[in-house]
Write a structure and sequence with these properties.
With 398 residues, this protein is an alpha/beta fold. It is built from 13 helices and 13 strands. Strands 9-8-7-10-11-12-13 form a 7-stranded parallel sheet, sandwiched between helices. The longest helix is centred in the last third of the chain and has 21 residues.
Length: 398
Amino acid sequence: MEMIPSRSSSLTKFKSDKPKILFLGKPTHDGGEIQKNTDYFEIDILDAENRTEALAKIPHQLFTRGPYEGIVARTNVYPFDPFDEELFAPFMPRLKIVVTGQVGYNDFDVEWMTRQGVYFCNSKYATCEATAEMALFLIFAVLRNTSLGEQSLREGRWRGDLGLGRDPAGLTLGIIGMGKIGEKLAHKASTAFGMRVAYWNKSGRKVSTLQHWAHLTSEYYQCETLDELLGCSDVVSLHCPLTESTTKLMSDREFGKMKPGSFFINTSRGGLVDDSALIKALESGQICRAGLDVFGGEPDSICPYYRERADKVVVQPHMGGLTEASFRKASMECFANLRAFFETGRPLAPLNELPIGTESKALGFKKAPTTHEHRPSTSTPAPSSNLLVAANEPIPAK
């Protein structure tokens, strides 16, 4: 158990008045955001390495330091999932909000939280830039067959049986799920590398700033159907959440609709893809190569084919969002939602809407005093709404 002290000793007398927040797992690379927010929250850390240890420690944590109104889950890589009733029920009925530093939420039981009147917020912006860059890296890697080139050189064979690579300029990149990550990838791929971009949203949502190819060939084309996108794309990149309706979105039928010899990228969730169907498409040549940062059964039950076939698959161990800037942005976004909730009774960007009668009122959020006892420092956080905007902007390198 770890308690984060306030930045100002003069605030200790207000300690019991602050909302109590618990981090599940010791956060890393938060850029000092936790310390900056100790004037606003009483923050504890449950230092556990895995779900079993966390479940064992929670009762004692609640007895000695609880109750908690807010929980921050996974701003790191500790394997606490699933984030479900078993994990969160001990914190009820005082728990009002759960925030996470990740964008994916398939391992969170959002329906249960909604029934309990608990807001849930993922981090919609924090990892967008980094994940889009990982997708772009994988696109280049499959086009240039870099995994096989590296393997050949390490084995003492200069170039080996490597053929010519493909140039990205002029190829069509098909994006399945034109959300925040998809938009960033589209911008990078089109403006810097001359790729044409098509996209398809399951919801049918049109990105308002985009234009049809017929009007401006450097802009993006919205496909009416998934089949249309698959048929016109040289590279297909997945950027949608894993839900019941998107599980195995890419299977035999979908891979069969792609251009022969095209390329496939997945930086979203492994469960979106039918592994046997992808392997069949790779072996037949329907898909030339795949670039994968995510896998079904990760990390312990990844299909061996992906590890063994450097000639067919470029792999990364789910590193897309793991950058220093992303972790700091995730902390900023988590605290932005927490502060907004305790200021107004509603977070800035909740993923769920609560049933009538379960909404929380503002819980007496205590803002940092501005008396002579405590003068605001230059590191005092900006207003919550500004933090959410900042989380979507690049953070300069140190």
